[in-house]
Amino acid sequence: MNEPQELKSTWKSVRTRTITAGGVKFAYRELGADNPGPPLVCLIHLAAVLDNWDPRVIDGFAARHRVIAFDNRGVGASSGSPSASMEEMAQDAIAFVEAMGFDQVDLFGFSMGGMIAQEIVLMKPALVRKMIITGTGPAGGEGISKVARVTYLDMLRGWLSFQDPKQFLFFTRTPSGIRAGKEFLLRIQERTEDRDKKITVAALQAQLKALRRWGNKAPADLSKVHHPVLVANGDSDRMVPSRNTRDLAERLPNSELIIYPDSGHGAVFQFHGDFVRRALAFLAR
């Protein structure tokens, strides 16, 4: 594909590439390479691969920013053994960013990705300019160690009702939440070619172990994180209870908080238009 065509790609059509870092071949996709400023690196949620990103959010960001999303080690099309701690995932992310040749990046972390982002900024603060962390919480946050229980319960609910578990995990059971879930699930199926490999059971179990460790970990000193941070969630998050989002905003000294009404873990996908607009304004300031 030549460069002009590549620049016109959208999330549902952009090709998957690979880069090797630390002995791991990372699968990634990139949009908006001609846009100025630090690239926005996206950190994915539990059990997710590249195809789980909402095209409206990624395309919205790519209209103004260079956007890169990648599969964690041992997940999707990336090689290696899956990591079982947020610290290991953060180290892998740093290795990926450095292999891409970036001196400084912005981070967008959703759910587990928001936890990885916190570890990255504590490990290597100079690498990060700004962070957007959504549907997430701090180390030791209330209810985070129980994510596995909620996940397995909603996987069973999905199986019994012939629905995708994300309909229960990400969205409320109100009419607007159910409608938003159905629309989101349709959007992430828009890509029909060159789809990613699904996560394996072993990788899912490793990530659930990492979440339990994170939930039982001693709280970090977030007062030393002076980077601008946009924190967002819905008001009814079942996976990472919404009080964790408010806690993060209070503990991060340079934060902005968005809480969307009648929404859960996937609020930024339910309100993708408003979220992208506000996130772009945050990155531009």
Strand content: 15-25%
CATH architecture: 3-Layer(aba) Sandwich
- Portion of residues in helices? 25-40%
- Specify Rg, calculated over alpha carbons: 17 Å
CATH superfamily heading: Alpha/Beta hydrolase fold, catalytic domain
List segments where confidence is low: pLDDT < 50 over at least 5 consecutive residues. Answer: 1-7
End-to-end separation in angstroms reads 34 Å
CATH class: Alpha Beta
Count of helical regions: 11
Main sheet summary:
8 strands, mixed
The CATH topology, please?
Rossmann fold
The tally of domains stands at: 1
- Given the helix and strand composition, which structural class is it? alpha/beta
SSE pattern: HEEEHEHEHEHHHHEHEHH
Main sheet: strand order: 1-2-4-3-5-6-7-8
> Judging from the principal axes of the Cα atoms, what is the shape?
globular
Give keywords.
single chain, hydrolase, 40% helix, Alpha/beta hydrolase, Rossmann fold, AB_hydrolase, globular, 285 residues, alpha/beta, eight-stranded mixed beta sheet, 11 helices
Explained architecture:
With 285 residues, the chain is α/β, with parallel strands linked by helices. It has a single domain, classed as Alpha/Beta hydrolase fold, catalytic domain (Rossmann fold, 3-Layer(aba) Sandwich), CATH 3.40.50. 40% of the residues lie in helices and 16% in strands. Strands 1-2-4-3-5-6-7-8 form an 8-stranded mixed beta sheet, with helices on both faces. The longest helix is centred in the last third of the chain and has 16 residues. The N terminus is likely disordered.
